[in-house]
Amino acid sequence: MQSSLKSAVAFVGVGLHSGEPVRLVVNPAPVGHGIVFRRTDLPPAESRIPAQWDAVVPSKLCTLLANPQGATVSTVEHVMAALAGCGIHNADITIDGPEVPILDGSSAPFVRGFLSVGVVEQCAPVRALKILRAVEVRDGEAVARLEPADTMEMDFRIDFADAAIGRQEKQLNLSNGAFVRELSDSRTFCRQADVDFMRANGLALGGTLDNAVVVKGDQVLSPGGLRHKDEPVRHKMLDALGDLALAGGPVLGRYTGIKAGHALTNRLLRQVFATPGAWTWVECGGLSGHKLPGVGVTHADLPRTAA
User: Fold this and answer.
1) What stretches in the chain show pLDDT beneath 70?
2) Which of 34, 95, 187, 203 has the most other CB atoms within 10 Å of its CB?
3) Active-site residue set
4) Cα Rg for the chain, rounded, in angstroms?
5) Separation CA 209–CA 214 (nearest Å)
6) Residues 63, 76: contact at Cβ < 8 Å?
7) Dmax (CA) of the chain
């Protein structure tokens, strides 16, 4: 069944790139509403920004949504992953600025907030995007692919020169709360050299060692080190789930990412929808609904680092 929150929950923090304070409130929404952002700092006629794959505009460092009036909201991937991973299909999100707060750099604060107010089932089946045949996009060595599977599955591989990251790969079936247990507390990561470059160019002004994993060679500079030995690849999977959630519903298929990022995952969704016979919408209710992410998630599923 579709679901929404029992009541509103607020999050306050700074934007990763702007460093500006921002308040985001995730509100309950009715059946069929989907996920929609509304900029409260803009006139009502310009403020509505649907969380959809075809609203994504090019951005190198995050997922950026825009509406036809030119209003934007950026860095939506972590809250979108939390919504998908908690099985929340309908939400009206108000935000008083152009960037979602980074919080601790993961999805865990959003998940914790959602579970604190509770999730309620709604009397309508979930519409899921079922992948019928493989679709793939490439950019040099980077690959993103979706192929048929009965559940949401993910296989991700990364390879970085920095010894603190190196080669990592992970596979997960994301049914029944696996996202919350395995991925939700994994933070965004970068190299110290990238931080220096971005700040020199007026970016990542809100980034700190407390909301990102920063590495330098074989060193992890962030206090406390890694939450998981493979935290970087887990975070890439978190990002991918958030970007796939822009399909407009859960995905029933196997996603493979090799050195993939936000832009390539969005290109993949665009290619899927442009490929006749590669996809169909299916209704998931009853037993079939238990294949979806977020079913039966509780506070006990949160990793110890995020509980």
Assistant:
1) 203-205, 286-289, 305-307
2) 187
3) 262
4) 18
5) 7
6) yes
7) 53
Query: Do the two domains 3-121 and 127-186+225-301 of this chain adopt the same fold?
Result: no
Q: How many CB atoms lie within 10 A of CB 171?
A: 12
Retrieve residue 18's tokens: 């702007």
Is the torsion defined by CA of 239, 243, 248, 252 positive or negative? negative
Pairing mode, if any, of strands 189-191 and 213-216?
parallel
* Distance separating the N- and C-terminal Cα atoms of the chain: 26
Specify the pairing of strand 35-39 against strand 91-95.
parallel
Q: Could you say which of 3.90.740.10, 3.30.1360.30, 3.30.230.20, 2.40.320.10 is the CATH number of the domain covering 3-121?
A: 3.30.230.20
pLDDT at res. 176? 84
Considering only CA atoms, which of 12, 22, 144 is closest in space to residue 74? 22
pLDDT of residue 305: 66
* HEC-encoded secondary structure of the chain: CCEEECCCEEEEEEECCCCCEEEEEEEECCCCCCEEEEECCCCHHHHEEECCHHHEECCCCCCEEECCCCCEEECCHHHHHHHHHCCCCCEEEEECCCECECCCCCCHHHHHHHHHHCEEECCCCEEEEEECCCEEEEECCEEEEEECCCCEEEEEEEECCCCCCCEEEEEEECCCCHHHHHCCCCCCEEEHHHHHHHHHCCCCCCCCCCCCEEEECCEECCCCCCCCCCHHHHHHHHHHHHHHHHHCCCEEEEEEEECCCHHHHHHHHHHHHCCCCCEEEEEECHHHHHHCCCCCCCHHHCCCCCC
CATH number belonging to the domain at 127-186+225-301, selected among 3.40.50.80, 3.90.1150.10, 3.40.630.30, 3.30.1700.10: 3.30.1700.10
pTM check: above 0.85: yes
Backbone angles phi, psi at 113, to 5 degrees: -65, -45
* Sequence ranges of the domains in the chain: 3-121, 127-186+225-301
